[in-house]
């Protein structure tokens, strides 16, 4: 992937990226951009700005993101004027969805944010790639609403409909764009942490991504509707948590852990492709009495940092046992950790604020062997996030 596999933030909120192809750090093109958290997937990444807004960055190497809007034009026949848009009071609206349950006039479709643009105007879909047919002009006929529509016009075809299409394209590829506020909802509380995952729960080509965020008040939020053709998602939904949350970490599959304000941890259970938000929580005691301040999860691993900056590994974690069975102390002192999709581990040193990579992590030696410094940045870092697909370093 030509995108940036590793993101780093310094204490001033400046954003840096490092890719295996480049081999060196590069600062984000937007010099005014300041982030305090960042999280990445295979197609895009999100960040929390110092201005409290959530930002989205879709990698420029991704194919064009196009979304199809559709609506149906409905008409009824009468003996005087033939087919017209004058419908019976009991009929559906003139412009509706496919099933006639919701009104959808052409002017009701608006771009979800300034990050999108229309590719063209509305056109009739007649199965000819947008070109109007001289025979049907896209009309389908039926005896009445609602029933089965066909292309063939019969003597008793009292109603007809045709589908109109319009495409919009995501135009903010390769740049950091503000995530739009949810329509008809009050602005959310400022977020303090963010994490994405879940894209490997299904083998479907259409990857759905789970985005989680923690607010200043300790609430946990889930962003619905994120997929490849809709990277911005739809809206934020609150997730019930028994106590206030300080930090969240989601893995590529079904692992999700949170750190509570008191230093204890919770593991989310019941997460699946059909239930991405999960169903319940299980309490996990911290590695030591000082309590946890940070947790990082991968496909089948969980790492934690306690308040004394010690690093811990949770053994026995898998999809059937998301809580694991016990903690193992790992050498080194870290400020925070980030686990990549291949369970490779990165961290920020607590003393020198540089980036470290956990050397020797394999499928049989999941804890690795040693920490190797990789940062050449002349600044103090406080956050890193891995977004590479599965590359080994």
UniProtKB/TrEMBL annotation:
Keywords: Repeat. Residues 64-125, 138-171 form the Peroxin/Ferlin domain. It comes from Cyprinus carpio carpio. This is Tectonin beta-propeller repeat containing 1. Pfam families: Hyd_WA, Pex24p. InterPro entries: Beta-propeller_rpt_TECPR, Peroxin/Ferlin, TECPR1-like_DysF, Tectonin_beta-prop. One of its GO terms (cellular component) is cytoplasm. Belongs to the TECPR1 family.
């Amino acid at each position: 992937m030509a995108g940036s596999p590793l993101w780093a933030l310094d204490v001033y909120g400046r954003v840096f990226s490092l890719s295996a192809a480049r081999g060196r750090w590069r600062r984000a093109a937007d010099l005014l951009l300041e982030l305090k958290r960042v999280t990445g997937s295979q197609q895009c990444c999100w960040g929390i700005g110092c201005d409290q807004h959530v930002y989205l960055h879709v990698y420029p190497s991704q194919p064009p993101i196009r979304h199809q809007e559709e609506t149906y034009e409905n008409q009824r026949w009468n003996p005087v004027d033939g087919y017209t848009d004058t419908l019976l009071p009991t009929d559906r609206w003139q412009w509706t969805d496919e099933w006639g349950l919701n009104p959808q006039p052409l002017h009701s479709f608006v771009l979800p944010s300034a990050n999108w643009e229309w590719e063209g105007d509305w056109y009739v879909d007649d199965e000819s790639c947008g070109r109007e047919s001289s025979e049907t002009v896209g009309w389908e006929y039926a005896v009445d609403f609602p029933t089965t529509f066909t292309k063939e016009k019969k003597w008793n075809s009292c109603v007809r409909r045709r589908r109109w299409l319009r495409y919009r394209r995501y135009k903010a590829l390769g740049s950091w764009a503000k995530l739009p506020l949810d329509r008809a909802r009050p602005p959310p509380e400022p977020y303090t942490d963010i994490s994405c995952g879940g894209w490997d729960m299904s083998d479907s080509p259409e990857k759905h991504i789970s985005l989680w965020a923690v607010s200043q008040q300790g609430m946990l939020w889930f962003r619905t509707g994120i997929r490849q053709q809709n990277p911005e998602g739809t809206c934020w939904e609150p997730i019930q948590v028994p106590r206030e949350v300080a930090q969240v970490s989601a893995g590529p599959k079904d692992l999700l852990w949170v750190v509570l304000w008191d230093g204890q941890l919770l593991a989310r259970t019941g997460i699946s492709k059909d239930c991405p938000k999960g169903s319940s929580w299980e309490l996990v005691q911290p590695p030591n009495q000082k309590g946890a301040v940070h947790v990082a999860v991968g496909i089948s691993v969980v790492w934690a940092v306690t308040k004394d900056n010690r690093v811990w590994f949770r053994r026995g974690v898998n999809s059937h046992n998301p809580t694991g069975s016990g903690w193992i102390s790992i050498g080194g002192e870290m400020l925070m950790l980030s686990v990549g999709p291949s369970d490779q581990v990165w961290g920020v040193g607590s003393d020198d604020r540089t980036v470290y990579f956990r050397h020797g992590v394999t499928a049989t030696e999941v804890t690795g062997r040693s920490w190797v410094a990789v940062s050449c940045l002349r600044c103090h870092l406080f956050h890193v996030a891995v977004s590479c697909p599965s590359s080994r370093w």
